[in-house]
Specification:
Helix content is about 35%, strand content about 15%. By secondary structure, the protein is of the alpha/beta class. Strands 1-2-3-4-5-6-7-8 form an 8-stranded parallel β-barrel, surrounded by 6 helices. Helix 8 packs parallel to helix 9 (about 215-225). The longest helix has 14 residues, at about 65-75. It starts with 10 loop residues before the first helix and ends in a 6-residue tail after the last helix.
């Protein structure tokens, strides 16, 4: 039987994978739809660092309407691919270019391991949105962050790189196409170079790193350690990240 799925292939994923292979890492600015005011959008777009390759959209508590508006406006005003990074299945909109289909594999809360994913199926099954299975790993960034509060899961300690590597490999073996190391938005400490390096050496799928990155130096450290895509949200939102 021919399915009525209309998925558009893997354009965004292939770009990330190819950039990773060529050693030309990507850079994403994360927009929280809850914080984004449409009247400020042009200013934000102008302020994007030149090396920005993707715009991520998502937040812990944004509504469906906020997410849809953010995606629509970002697509209207910039030529960059818009990738959903949803904190909740309600934030999924087919107007984006791709969806990080996140499973919070570091935690043991079924809501974020599989239930949110099931809740998103009706929206996804007839959409052309590129779906990228992503193993999402929450790492202790030194402060309690929104993702920890909302997901009701404990972050993994940075003192046990072997365990983090095991979680990342379990994600890869389960068929995830990306691994995302997340220290949490506004984290005091980003994911350490040691952890990034250990995970990168173990997996053969692209590695995303985000949370608490505020300076050019921290960005360079993440890239040098092996991040294939780095995400910055808070520092850009506060106008402090212009590299
Ligand atoms: C994306 O949550 C991060 O992984 C963004 O973190 O807001 O601290 O940049 P910041």
């Amino acid at each position: 039987m021919i399915s009525n799925f209309t998925h558009s292939g893997s354009v965004i994923y292939s770009q990330i994978e190819q950039a990773a292979r060529l050693g030309q890492p990507c850079f994403a600015i994360l927009f929280d739809p809850e914080e984004l005011r449409v009247q400020d959008l042009e200013k934000h777009i102008e302020a994007l660092p030149d090396h920005t390759t993707h715009l991520f959209v998502g937040g812990s508590t944004a509504t469906a309407a906020q997410a849809q508006l953010a995606v629509r406006e970002l697509k209207k005003h910039s030529g960059l691919p818009v990738v959903l990074f949803p904190g909740d299945h309600n934030q999924i909109t087919a107007e984006a270019d791709a969806l990080l289909f996140l499973s919070l594999i570091s935690g043991e809360n079924p809501e974020y391991l599989i239930r949110q994913q099931i809740k998103s199926v009706d929206k996804l099954k007839n959409s052309a949105l590129e779906i990228i299975p992503t193993g999402y790993i929450l790492i202790d960034g030194g402060t309690e962050t929104a993702v920890q509060r909302v997901s009701k899961t404990q972050p993994l300690t940075q003192d046990d790189p072997d365990h983090i590597v095991a979680v990342a490999l379990a994600g890869q073996y389960s068929g995830k196409k990306l691994i995302y190391l997340e220290a949490g938005s506004g984290a005091k400490n980003p994911v350490s170079a040691e952890i990034i390096k250990a995970v990168k050496e173990a997996i053969h799928i692209p590695l995303i790193v985000g949370g608490g990155i505020r300076t050019r130096e921290q960005l360079e450290i993440a890239y040098e350690a092996g991040a294939d895509l780095v995400v910055v949200g808070t520092a850009f939102e506060n106008g402090n990240f212009r590299i």
